[in-house]
Amino acid sequence: MTAIAKGEDPVPSFADGLQVQRVLDAVERSAADRSTWTDIPA
């Protein structure tokens, strides 16, 4: 958000990508389990 506010392109890190993958995994597991709440590992 800071980069966008400065008019720059954001530069995501590996950690950012890993967190996105964790969220997507939780969405998939939740959908497979009747849309139950699914925790995301820290």
Describe the structure concisely for a colleague.
The chain has helices at 2-5, 14-32. With 42 residues, it is mostly helical. The two termini are 22 Å apart.
Describe it for me?
There is one protein chain. The protein is mostly helical and 42 residues long. Helices cover 55% and strands 0% of the residues. The chain has helices at 2-5, 14-32.
Topology:
Layout: H1 2-5, H2 14-32
Query: What share of the residues does DSSP label as strand, in percent?
Result: under 5%
Number of helical segments? Answer: 2
Fraction of helical residues: 40-55%
What structural class results from the helix and strand content? mainly alpha
Q: pLDDT average, as an integer?
A: 92
Q: What is Rg?
A: 14 Å
Distance between the termini: 22 Å
Largest sheet descriptor: none
The assembly state of the depicted protein chains is single chain
The helix/strand order is HH
Number of strands: 0
Shape, principal axes of CA atoms: elongated
Low-confidence blocks of residues: none
